[in-house]
């Protein structure tokens, strides 16, 4: 008597292996998601602490100079610290030469930059109002004046031990105003040099925010 060969139920066999496999993969996914969440929390804490330290160091350097203390503004953003200095305090009218009285404070600020982690860079941005430069002066346009003011600060920072590859210069002339150039006070506020401290991005520099005032 010939016995019929029993058919193997593949679907039942696969199901026996599939259930523990799915359980294992689900557990692993949850485990790696937890690890990634812990990494993000740690990274955020480190960046927050670094930002607080940089802010306190920059503030301490500025507060050592009574004149700069009253004219400088420090703005803490999510990914950067922006230090704004009034041009009239740092430079003479229509000039890119640093005022001797502010140089000691700028040297202290240079020491702060020297202590930054290597991945941080500083973008120095020159800005003017819409008043034309003096005819026959050192510069032919506000473009030149704003850029050379930025370069003057970078030269001082590199002369006092900073690596040149930490810095970038930008000159925005009169085209990145904080306010309309309609009063002497607004023009004075628009004449400024801003230092943006942030993690270096080799692809592009931080773009200006454009006209920040509302018409």
How would you characterize the overall build of this protein?
The chain has 215 residues and is of the alpha+beta class. It has one domain (32-199): 60s Ribosomal Protein L30, Chain: A, CATH 3.30.1330.60. 47% of the residues lie in helices and 15% in strands. The protein has six helices and five strands. It has helices at residues 10-63, 66-71, 87-90, 103-114, 142-159, 184-190, and strands spanning 73-76, 80-86, 120-127, 167-171, 192-199. It has a five-stranded mixed beta sheet with strand order 1-2-5-3-4. A hairpin with a 3-residue loop joins strand 1 and strand 2 (80-86). Helix 4 crosses helix 5. The radius of gyration is 29 Å and the shape is elongated. The termini are far apart.
Number of domains: 1
N-to-C series of helices and strands: HHEEHHEHEHE
Spatial sequence of strands, sheet with the most strands: 1-2-5-3-4
Q: Label the structural class.
A: alpha+beta
Query: For the record, what CATH class applies?
Result: Alpha Beta
Annotation, overall tally of beta strands: 5
Strand-helix topology:
Layout: H1 10-63, H2 66-71, E1 73-76, E2 80-86, H3 87-90, H4 103-114, E3 120-127, H5 142-159, E4 167-171, H6 184-190, E5 192-199
Parallel strand pairs: 3-4
Antiparallel strand pairs: 1-2, 2-5, 3-5
Helix pairs in contact: 1-4, 4-5
